[in-house]
Amino acid sequence: MSTADLRPVIDTALVRRLVDEQFPQWAGLPLERFEPAGSDHVVHRLGGELSVRLPRHRHAVGQAAKELRWLPRLGPLLPLAVPVPVAVGEPGCGYPWPWAVSRWLEGDVATVAGLGDSAPAARALAGFLTALRSCPADGGGALREPLEERDAATRAAIAALAGEFDAGAMTALWDAALAAPYREPAPVWCHGDLHTGNLLTAGGELSAVIDFGELGLGDPACDLTIAFTLMSARCRTVFRTALGADEDTWTRGRGWALATGLNAHAAYAADHPAVAAQTTRQIRAALAG
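^ that's the sequence the OP posted. Answer follows.
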């Protein structure tokens, strides 16, 4: 198996050995696997205040170092909680990559049923993105890919899924998104992977944004995908108004939602009914505007 395809077996015994050997100050703390975790990391709760996250695959490697570098600088400037990195572990015990220890964030993963028609949540997300975009970018992170780099893959997905969705409408939206100009004087901070699985709620309200593996500088329209993965049409209007998104930015955001929805639908929908339902909703919402 190539390193690109490597999927190490990650069990609690492995995580226990890594923690005990590299951070003996936490060796006495209880360790419990947390489910459900995302597709990129295996997560364990360490004691009452820490989490341990190990990448499942090569594409998630690097997040630990990125969060350790940037979140302590960005977090105090943001209106919602974000992970607080504590340490980065080294490869060991047969595990090949760096891994992360962060402060535990209490909360439940956001759902469409819980927050989809919540105007306060829509305004809170708009406030978070406004603050993130305003954070100083001097000496900032790597540039994110522009929308244009997804052109070939998106057009291929439109053709492949023409039997499920309106190919003409998808092509028209995609062409409009590519044509909508980006007028920001310079790239700004973007979360880059803003969907329901990366939002936490507490007491029925939005409380935290997590998983900054795609954090970088770029077109902030990429983060508008959350409007089409989470929000009702009514709350999309609330969100857009609070964010102050102009027509070009909103159109590019619809393009990002279409592209990412099509990619995930083509790759996973056949074997994962939940993904099929989620991405179908996202694609139809993007087409609706």
